[in-house]
Amino acid sequence: MNLIDWNVDESWTLFLDRDGVINERIIGDYVTNLGDFHFKEKALESLGKLTCKFKFVFVVTNQQGVALGKMTQKQLEEIHEYMVNEIVEKSGHITHVYSATELKNSDSTFRKPSPKMAYMAKERFPEVVFQKSIMVGDTDSDIRFGKNLGMKTVLILTEEKISEKADLEVKSIFELNELLEK
Ligand SMILES: [Mg+2]
Fold first, then answer.
1. How many A from CA of 48 to the centre of ligand 1?
2. 17 is catalytic
């Protein structure tokens, strides 16, 4: 399927996973401070251009490192403030960052693939329409999250084995932005 078939315009909403999509993921560990946060190659410039195409852009990220005591809520917020400011510097924007900081267990209600973070966005910004939204992520939980909500799904390919089938697979945010410009 080609992106052009989706008829994406400014009324669409973009949902972005963070680790492995925006910044380099640390496999088996957490980005706990600014020193560990590195934008993926060409991601920052691409996010500047990509986010401009949407009225609403949300980052939805599972960060159980907070519940595990690896970082504080404040440290997480500092990382996100830096991330958003850098994107704004590139003429882009992020409407809001939603973080699920609870532990991964059966009681998780916020963590993807739970749709909770998307519902929070919709509650605050009722114009958001999930059928006119794109979820970009690098893991099964991201793709499930998007599919459960009726969104279009974009998988950023990594070395991780993925069982879910996304609507579109790309290597990077850079490539996704290029496709949207065609
Ligand atoms: Mg990820």
1. 19
2. yes
Is pLDDT of 182 > 80?
no
CATH code: domain 3-181 is 3.40.50.1000
pTM of the model: 0.96
Cα three-residue angle 6-150-62, rounded to 5 degrees: 110
pLDDT digits (tens, 9 = 90+) for 9-64: 999 999 999 999 999 999 889 999 999 999 999 999 999 999 999 999 999 999 99
Q: Which of 5, 9, 17, 140 is catalytic?
A: 17
Yes or no: say if 174 and 47 are a contact pair by the CB < 8 Å rule: no
Rounded distance between C-alpha atoms, residue 117 and residue 168, angstroms = 22
Indicate if the pLDDT at residue 1 is higher than 70. Answer: no
Per-domain residue ranges for the chain? Answer: 3-181
| Active-site position among 9, 19, 29, 142 | 19
- What are the angstrom distances between the C-alpha of 175 and each of 22, 64, 67, 84, 139? 13, 29, 34, 21, 18
SS3 59: strand
